[in-house]
Amino acid sequence: MKPRSMLKGAFLVLVAAAIFALGQYAGMTGRTVQLTNVADAAGQAAAPQRAAAPVTSPTGTAPDRYLYYPGTEELGSEEIRLIALGTGMPLARRSQAATCWLVELGNGDKFLFDIGTGANANLSGLMIPFDFTKKIFLTHLHTDHWGDLPGLWAGGWTAGRTSALEIWGPTGATEDMGTKYAVEHFLKAYNWDNMTRLANLASAPGKIIVHEFDYKGENQVVYDENGVAIRSFPAIHAGDGAVSFALYWKGMKVVIGGDSMPNTWYTRYALDADVAIHEAFLTPELLWKLYNQAPETAIGVGTYVHTPPQAFGKIMSTIKPRMAIAYHFFNEADTRSQMQKYIRETYDGPLTLAEDNLVWNITKDAIHVRNIISPDEAWSVAGPTAPLPPDRTVPDQLSKWSLDHRWDISDVSAKMVQEFKAKHNMQ
Ligand SMILES: [Zn+2]
Ligand SMILES: [Zn+2]
To answer: Which of the four pLDDT bands, split at 50, 70 and 90, describes residue 48?
Structure first.
């Protein structure tokens, strides 16, 4: 990991330890709120707490309760791991990608909900083999919710995925506003990419299978396998065709709210969720002041297309989840206190103000939230299925015209090539 990440982690531990030691639970902002609410959600006493076990070695002193190191913990048989891979805005930034959630279940299943711009970098940091991140559920077709599909599609294809991606997404009001149309035309737009890879790679991982469902369906089952049910219900956002999802497993319910103004479907179908994710949008003031929007745009986007923070709070105090997660705003020092203040006008329950690289461990007994420490330079991790050799389903896309201008200096790398082929029993 990078020193910057380590410093950030060390700082968080110190901050968290100080907060728990002082027992100051009111009026905190940002990450401290999250830690406070972990205690709330777990029903723990609001009192200073020790680490799980006393330190027994001077070289292993850090408690593990604040940080998650990806891939180092097994999930329990009835445990859900929810990870925020993107929680920000369409103008993705290095510290906050656009919307993407990963849900991992104790039975081994993994589901991506949205794959927004910039999210792949965070996904890579989890070091999960690409064969385990093939199931993607799209809430709607704004780029901040599927803008990193090209990276996952082509990146995973080049880095060991062995079969097709699968996308579940809504129809649109017309055929050309639906997920099937979008993915078909995505592949057309990326035709050069697709054809040149098909000429050099295995073809199966380059395919995308689309499962399109009616965006008007209310609480309809769109996925039902291995004891996991995922239901969709409509959202109201910018145009017909946006949805939210609810994942049901082992008597628990995680609701992934897509972009929406407040709506009656959400309050009905997210009722009593264990975890309820819903957008809480930047205020018109912040959109104008920091996001460079005209005042007229800021009012429209912040109060009609999306959900203001006070309305988010009202929604959560109505459905009463064990943990409410607010996202879709740049979560930083300039915004956090204002967003929290407005949410707390209408909601006093367990709350996380989302940021990227947070993890929630969810069981029937407790919900714990921690920061993730992941490497900036992670490589693809080998899965249980060996990567496939090329099957060259299309001919070489280099013509004689190109190849006639090739400068054949292969002799300079001949020894390296020969050694590699000998090592792998290649002709
Ligand atoms: Zn949107
Ligand atoms: Zn959005």
So the answer is: very low
